[in-house]
Amino acid sequence: MSDIPDTHPRAASLRLRERLVEGLHAGIVTETGLIAHGRGEAIDYLLGERTHPFAERAVAAASAVLTLAAHPVVTTNGNVVALVGRELVALAEHHPRLAFEVNLFHHSPERAQRVLSHLRGLGLARAMHFSESAAPAVLPGLDSARRFMHPEGVGKADAVLVALEDGDRCQALVASGRTVVAIDLNPLSRTAKMAQVTIVDELTRVVPALDRQLLTDRTAPREELERRLAEYDNRAVLREAVAAIRTGFAGE
Ligand code: ATP
Ligand code: MG
């Protein structure tokens, strides 16, 4: 139970830490997951812990990518499940076209099962993991268990949403011809640079915003979504994110 008062100036940030610590104790988050969160948190601090216009543009592009895709898949890891498990359930309920697959940086069969059971317990019954497939597909360029894909999930995906993802896997997904949308607070990370669409914003703010945009785009003409993507410039988004961080450092 949280005893963080709403009036605490860092209440939102402290509650996210609490979710991760609970996830750690439940065996969903790893110790290194806490460290990865710290890196994101520091950048969010510099960004003023708010959604910037460059992130809104990236969310609009992300929604266009996922709406136009034949097989869009959301991949989740331990941190993601701990931070936005409930929001993912809502996303899944609102968007039956989206598949969900668990992929862990620190993989063990037990941990994968715990993450999967946790997600299913929240209501995301269709969450997948390669271990439940008789013939997992393999993503070239990776040598850990992260290379395995469920054939009905990332295996057949043409567009993949990754969050808090390692650069290696992002690179391998892009090299495989898939379109990658990344949620990553660090505009300098390999993931942020490799992805075709990078949403530089905090995960718990992004998922509900993406959910709303996907609902709006359901009735959007195909040409409008294609035009939005043609006009989208991910390099400009990353440049603006770096500039916003600089401004944060300047204390402005
Ligand atoms: P890369 O491998 O892409 O170069 P990295 O090695 O610096 O990145 P990883 O641990 O591989 O970092 O990936 C985690 C990424 O997730 C980091 O870039 C971090 O900034 C980001 N991140 C952490 N927590 C959040 C969060 N709550 N919301 C959005 N992004 C986050
Ligand atoms: Mg990394």
Write the layout of secondary structure elements.
Elements lengths: L10 H15 L5 H16 L6 H16 L3 E5 L1 H17 L4 E4 L6 H14 L14 E2 L9 E2 L9 E5 L3 H9 L3 E5 L6 H5 L2 E3 L3 H15 L4 H10 L2 H16 L3
Parallel strand pairs: 1-2, 1-5, 5-6, 6-7
Antiparallel strand pairs: 3-4
Helix pairs in contact: 1-2, 1-4, 3-8, 3-9, 3-10, 4-5, 4-8
The protein binds adenosine-5'-triphosphate and magnesium ion.
What do these coordinates show?
The chain is an alpha/beta fold and 252 residues long. Helices cover 53% and strands 10% of the residues. Helix 4 (78-94) links the parallel strand 1 (72-76) and strand 2. Helix 3 (53-68) crosses helix 9. It has helices at residues 11-25, 31-46, 53-68, 78-94, 109-122, 167-175, 190-194, 203-217, 222-231, 234-249, and strands at residues 72-76, 99-102, 137-138, 148-149, 159-163, 179-183, 197-199. It is globular, with a radius of gyration of 17 Å. Magnesium ion (MG) is lined by residues 166-167. Adenosine-5'-triphosphate binds at residues 36-37, 39-40, 43, 83, 164, 166-167, 183-186, 189-191, 202-203.
